[in-house]
Amino acid sequence: MQSKHDYSLFSKHFTSKQVFILVYVDDLVITGDDIEGIATIKQELHSAYTIKDLGLARYFLGIEISRTAFGTFLNQRKYILDIFHDAGLTAAKSAKFPLPQGLKLSVVTSPLLPNPAAYRQLVGQLLYLTLTRPDIFYVVQHLS
User: With contact defined as beta carbons under 8 Å apart, do 63 and 57 qualify?
Assistant: First the structure.
């Protein structure tokens, strides 16, 4: 069944368990709480198309996936380093607060950027980063 909220997300229910499939171009992430259901779906997909099972996901769309006894953790460390490199900020120092308190950005009083396309690209990258870093969401939305 296709999700009404995300058209690239599909779910299939087997009795009390379920399996989810996330599609991105020609890549699929198959997950759920039904190991037999996952195996069945993989087998059905392989009989209709030739698929390559890469095993447990470790990296997908810039998100690193790691599993421990405490659960599954997502991070975008490599993606952050790529953003720093692309923006020329590899030598930047961290700050306690991402924006000065009370900062007001305005097209009237703020100076225009020399390269607005680069700014838009950086903000777009930061928006994607908020998937695993909700702590920067307010600041990124403000800059957006």
Answer: no
